[in-house]
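**Backbone description:**
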Amino acid sequence: MLRPALVVLAGLAAPAQAAPVPLSTLIGPPVVGTWRTPNGTEVSVAPCGDQLCGTLSYIVIPKKNAAQCNATDPQTFASLMLDYSNPDKSLQTRPLLGLTMLSIKPTDDPNTYTGSAYNPEDGSTNDVQLFVVNGGSTLRLGGGCFAGMCAVTQDWPRVPDRPDAPTFTCNGGQ
């Protein structure tokens, strides 16, 4: 119970010229905060019940859909971003903005987590291991290894929380 207080006190004692530290890194587990995926989409991790959840807080619309996105009213376009690839037809009408895509459980190591990741691009859910590395600036996701085959690992950099989240941009993406 003393750890968060010590971290806050240590942060107050830092020199005035030190780089600002996101509040999310001072409160709660190291995984709490916002992380940028390889395609620019952002996932915000926060406590939810007895675990942690990662929600889609910022979506980068792929270039192939940018013209339609830019030509459509933002609220209307947001209402069109639904979970169409979900194999459960009853979930295909839920919005992608704010969708929980990570369910995270802590382990004995404060920088290591287990969980599941939902991929809205193809509707798959996979078990993952998550590691907070590089002094808390990177979230590493990996599916682990079995029988000599390893799942792809992704590194997600920590980014500032967006005050207007969840939201999206029409300009960007692959």
In short: The first strand starts at residue 33 and ends at 36. The CA atoms of residues 62 and 173 lie 4 Å apart. The two ends are 44 Å apart (CA to CA). The chain has one domain: 29-169.
